[in-house]
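hey so i finally got around to running the thing on that chain from the lab meeting. sorry it took forever, my laptop kept dying and i had to restart like 3 times. anyway pasting the input first so we r on the same page abt which one it is
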Amino acid sequence: MKKLLSSICLLLFCAQAVLFSQLTIVVTAIPGNTPPGSSIYIAGTFNNWNAGDATKILTPMGNGQFSIVLTPAVGTVKFKFTRGGWPSVEGNANGSFQPDHETTYNGQPKTIQLPILSWEDLGGSGSNSTAAANVQIMDNDFYIPQLNRNRRIWLYLPPDYATTTKSYPVLYMQDAQNLFDAETSFSGEWEVDESLNELHQQGDYGCIVVGIDNGGVDRLNEYSPWINAQYGGGQGDEYIEFLVSTLKPYIDANYRTLPGRNTTGIMGSSMGGLISMYGFSERQDIFPKAGIFPPHSGLRATIRSITWQPTPNRALRGYTSLQAAKNRLLLNRICCKSPMP
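ok and heres what got predicted. didnt touch it at all, straight out
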């Protein structure tokens, strides 16, 4: 009887070990030009590199993320993501060949988080898109609890994000429709992705850019904390609270960021410049760096009323630019990794 009980206990222990000793893989973002409704597959050493294995389809998690739980053999695990076949395999930040992802699995629970940078068959852009391959749509409907509405969130990841273990400064930018893609822009894109990729090639450390779409009809309301009889406004405090209390914690939890005060910035133009200036002045504990392009001309009197007293022993850096040609210098200064003096 003792032997029987011992055997049963051993079996239960082994079953429990198998149940809880798993490898969880989380895709934190997919390329912006991923066809709607696409399934994300994983192929690797655990399924004989079957790119269309129906048992290896990742589960949508919401907020633009996908996950799958595997129970591979102990040892080196290699894998890639596809949309159901090798012609639609993932690519690197330039839309070309992506080496195998690789991890060492020792039989203990382990979670890996990583983005899909591009698809080889689609490159970095859609048919008319000008966005670089390392620009992704993090989520088309990210919830803003402070305003009870949803918003598309864009993500620029440095070219070496997938091939290093580096953590990066983060820049939060307004009017994301205009930042990366001429197809979605109002009157031409800012070329933020091209500028940062060029700076990276020149030796810049790199930074993550989180782009928040403006709210369309709600843009003036969200980008001004004050109510203006002609332009509206009054929801700026809620918008800044969303950046600080909802979006930033999510980004820091899911991406390799340098979350500290000295490596976080905010940037915008026109009304986006106004709300960036306001966030810079009101939340010095979060945004000590700001890039402020000419704020909305119709609210200059309101802008003049923005005053602040720098918190003792907390340096601030604010940059303004009147010329688009200065964009790259401005981005370089705001996205720098070095701590502030």
